[in-house]
Amino acid sequence: MTKHLRTAAVCSTAALALAQAGSVAAKVERIVIDGTTAAPKVEGAPEYEIVSGHFEGTLDPQLPANTVITDIAQVPRNAQGLVEYSATFRLARPVDTTKASGVLFYDVPNRGNYLIGADPDGHVRLVSGWQGDLPKDPALQTANVPIAKGPGGRPLTGPVLVRFQDLPAGTSTAPLAGSIGRPTARPEPVTLDTRKATLFYQTPGREERHQVAATDWAFADCSTRPFPGKPDPHSLCLRGGFDPARAYTLVYTGKDPLVLGIGFAATRDLVAYLRHDPDGLARQIRWTVASGTSQSGNFLKSFVNLGFNADETGRIVFDGINPNIAARQVPLNLRFGVPGGAARAFEPGSEGALWWSRYDDRLRGLGTTSLLDRCNATGTCPKIIETFGSAEFWGLRMSPGLVGTDAAADLPLPANVRRYYFPSVTHGGSYTGGFKPAGDGAVPGCRLAANPNPSLESLHAAQAMLVDWVSKGIPPKPSVYPTRSAGDLVEPTARAMGWPAIPDTPDPARMLNTMPDYRFGRGFRRRDVSGSLTTLPPVQQGTIRQLVPRVNGDGNETAGIASVQLQVPLGTYLGWNETIRGFDAGKGCSFVGGFVPFARTREERLAKSDPRPSLEERYGNRDGFLAQVRAAVARQVAAGWLLPRDAERLLRQADDSDVLR
């Protein structure tokens, strides 16, 4: 069958299945397929094809499953009284259906970015758009969501906050944008009158706010015309330009909020449709699993917390989920939300439930909550494997999820949750692979080299356990992570951590991203990180105590699932780094991990007063190093923390390395 005919057949099958499903609920109304292409070959995987397209859906705004979506009651409806949306998708499936495992594995895109292709285990792989504020780009997975309106169709308004930081010297104009990694446009102001808005700046290390006079800035573009420039509702122009050492905060009244929370429903309804559609796109799906990394893992936590793991008819959506390196909830279900934020000043995300078991957050007055409250009530909780590493403690405020906001004791895990910790890694671990004596290279704006310690191999093993747990009923390994009771979680000071006196390294105590106790006003539903941010900037009522993992004499963490590289270390692998310039100079460098290499010889380390044994003192020579790598690989495979295909790759990387060559 030609690609064109195969695509036509898929379209026909999807249309038929949708017609049959139409009587069940108003969900996915139409799937449009743009094309079907052969997936690149993957060793050990059957032949795959990738189906690309978009889907169109509707939501009943009065259905209890949907009323949790912020502002959905304010959205214009179609003739049937339903809310319309659409989103993109890509699906990779085995060409030979007998080679399919029966598992649908959903990878939550991160800021629209995604990877998809053949799966060595025969799983159907799926990605789809959910973030409605992304620019429309064929290279991204995106969603089209409606705008909420006020009474009589008038604009719906509310406060909006935009932060400007570390702009190059001489910059006069900056866009009104949010998010990290991929800037997203903020809403237009209801007026360009600067007297109806507030702009202030702060200087490094000081809390004082210095207001900028309304006559010294404008909603304008000054790139081609001197101040006050050309009026522009999407830009801010500052008389005299921005100071690189200052952080500026703008608060104004915006209009026409996108109903971003529909992204949760779009994911719910697409997956629910595919898992109950035996003759359509995905073909005979029996189990569904989702994984999300960083922002996407936060999405999964909020997805479950808000009750979206039950579809509109009450059936379970995902049998298992893997929130990876995800310390917060995603600030998506908000009027004027910024789902691409990342635990920076004045940003929401850590204010609600952060724990899997029920915990009474007395410090913040949140009450007794759990991320699983809603799914427990409906019997739709998934099996959960949570994975994360060092950078999540240091840069993303992971600690309260383990010990609560009072940090008094370890919080228990429910029977359907496993937690695996990857020690001494940067955010997501190194993706370059290999054994690198000098680290992963320089990081712009950070003092130390990039941390080369990976976590991907351990993540692969954890995800395989999740699939077996869901599809075969095989319980995964017991949780392994740092706890207070074992002495693995300590105060974030060098003394408490056991930090060695490594020359030319910063004080770890300055590297922690503090956790403010923010109050965003009465319109904000803290438990769910939903609603409206009616107080901006938020009022800070204190700082939440956080704990961090202890370290050994090398400065490396001791608790968790140590990678082969950490078992045969080439230096000190850190979950933190130091900012060397700009407003945050001297503090943690976002959530980037650093690396301090060992000296090669004893003489070199003594000359630097380095207390850590050198490479030669540890391994003798290259053969000694390779022997220890082989032994560590064998241990990891035997323990079930290294898949055979990953073990072979690690051994090749060690052979190719320059260690003691």
From TrEMBL:
Residue ranges of every copy of the Alpha/beta hydrolase domain listed in the record: 210-652
UniProt KW keywords: Signal
InterPro entries (UniProt xref): Abhydrolase_dom (IPR045394)
Source species, domain of life: Bacteria
Signal peptide: 1-26
Record's protein name: Alpha/beta hydrolase domain-containing protein
Annotated source species: Novosphingobium aerophilum
